[in-house]
């Protein structure tokens, strides 16, 4: 097998159905269908997610090929997220990718979802230089990763319980905001003051913990509502600004420690939570203070998208790292596999 020049990539690990085309390392299209069905349930419902992937996946792939002005004859490999993620969701993307690879007689490339969030930094300039540190913050993960080369990662710290995105989403649920609450908290925080403070987790090393923060917020709101039943409605912006500032401070404190420990000033943010405007602003001013070169991808490449899968697949394709057609999705796929 040879190095594929044109790759079709598929992402279906959670609640976004996405397809992208990359040629010679340049992303030509990136089409994402975000499932809205989960909004009424306060979280992703796995059964509904896989059904929705099934109906969206073919039109999304067609659109990605059309936008890239690419025909199926041009595709020289099919890439797909193998994990981590929801089993039923992963199965749809993996089955589709295998079917296409078999029908088109091209190789299959498997991609790790969290590696792809990091590789999103190589879609557009400015690109970080190796080695760099990446704070990957999503709905399912919170990690600080040292990246020495496209496939050489070392996880320096990670969450021991909830992910940063979950901290936003679960707090938002307590506040009565729709799922996913992260973007709503972000928007409301922009007109609020971070006037309430919550205790910081007491965790050693470079790991994170967010479950204590969620509980502290819950107890705080309970106590305030006893004094004033309308407390949340009357102070929603300030509560959101306070929650956001607590999460951002926890993330950036750890990132600063990691940068100092590793002696690195090439710093990157990745994952859905890096769309957060409070995190972006605070990270930019910290970068100025610490003389970091800070890299944050465009919003469309921060949240789940197949463009990042295509980019990660491009690197794997260059090394002719192909998967067998017996490859199975793995909801808990480890980062180095
Ligand atoms: O990376 P992602 O799209 O999916 C996962 O792999 O989890 O991340 C989704 C997470 C959700 O928890 C969502 O609330 C959060 O990213 N998120 C945000 C913002 N946009 C998305 N959190 C805070 N502020 C935002 N602007
Ligand atoms: Zn993700």
Give the SSE map.
Layout: E1 6-11, E2 16-23, E3 26-34, H1 46-67, E4 77-83, H2 87-104, E5 108-112, H3 113-119, E6 132-137, E7 142-149, E8 152-158, H4 164-174, H5 182-189, H6 211-227, H7 231-262, E9 266-270, H8 277-290, E10 293-295, H9 299-302, H10 306-318
Parallel strand pairs: 1-4, 4-5, 6-9, 9-10
Antiparallel strand pairs: 1-2, 2-3, 6-7, 7-8
The structure holds 5'-O-[(R)-(carboxyoxy)(hydroxy)phosphoryl]adenosine and zinc ion (ZN).
Residues 14, 138-140, 165, 168-169, 180-183, 186, 271-273, 275-276, 303-304 line the site of 5'-O-[(R)-(carboxyoxy)(hydroxy)phosphoryl]adenosine (KG4).
**What overall geometry do the principal axes of the alpha carbons give?**
globular
Rg from Cα: 20 Å
Query: Helix-strand pattern, N to C?
Result: EEEHEHEHEEEHHHHEHEHH
Termini distance?
21 Å
Main beta-sheet strand count, sense and barrel state: 5 strands, mixed
* Quaternary structure: single chain
**What ligands are attached or bound here?**
5'-O-[(R)-(carboxyoxy)(hydroxy)phosphoryl]adenosine, zinc ion
Strand content: 15-25%
Question: What structural class do you assign from the helix and strand content?
Answer: alpha/beta
Number of strands: 10
In DSSP terms (H or I, runs of 4 or more residues), the helix count works out at 10
Largest beta sheet: strand ordering? 3-2-1-4-5
- Which stretches are poorly predicted, pLDDT < 50 over at least 5 residues? none
Average pLDDT figure: 95
Approximately how much helix is present in the residues? 40-55%
């Amino acid at each position: 097998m040879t190095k594929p020049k044109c790759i079709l990539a598929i992402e279906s690990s959670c609640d976004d159905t996405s397809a992208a085309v990359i040629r010679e390392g340049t992303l030509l299209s990136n089409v994402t269908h975000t499932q809205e069905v989960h909004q009424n349930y306060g979280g992703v419902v796995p059964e509904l997610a896989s059904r929705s992937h099934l109906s969206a996946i073919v039109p999304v792939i067609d659109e990605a090929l059309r936008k890239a002005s690419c025909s199926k004859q041009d595709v020289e490999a099919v890439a797909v997220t193998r994990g981590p993620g929801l089993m039923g969701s992963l199965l749809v993307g993996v089955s589709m990718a295998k079917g296409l690879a078999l029908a088109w007689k091209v190789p299959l490339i498997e991609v790790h979802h969290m590696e792809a969030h990091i590789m999103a930094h190589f879609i557009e300039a400015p690109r970080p230089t190796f080695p760099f540190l990446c704070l990957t913050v999503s709905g399912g993960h919170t990690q600080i990763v040292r990246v020495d080369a496209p496939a050489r990662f070392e996880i320096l710290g990670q969450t021991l319980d909830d992910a940063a995105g979950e901290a936003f989403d679960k707090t938002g649920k307590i506040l009565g905001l729709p799922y996913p609450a992260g973007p709503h908290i972000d928007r409301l925080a922009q007109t609020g003051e971070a006037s309430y403070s919550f205790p910081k987790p007491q965790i050693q090393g470079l790991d994170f913990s967010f479950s204590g923060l969620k509980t502290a917020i819950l107890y705080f709101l309970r106590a305030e509502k006893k004094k004033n039943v309308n407390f949340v409605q009357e102070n929603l912006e300030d509560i959101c600004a306070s929650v956001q500032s607590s999460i951002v401070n926890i993330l950036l404190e750890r990132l600063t420690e990691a940068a100092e420990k590793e002696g690195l000033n090439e710093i990157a943010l990745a994952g859905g939570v890096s769309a957060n405007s409070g995190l972006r602003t605070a990270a930019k001013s910290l970068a100025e203070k610490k003389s970091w070169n800070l890299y944050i991808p465009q919003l469309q490449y921060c949240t789940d998208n197949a463009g990042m899968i295509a980019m990660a697949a491009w690197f794997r394709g260059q090394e002719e790292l192909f998967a067998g057609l017996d490859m199975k999705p793995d909801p808990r796929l480890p980062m180095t596999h």
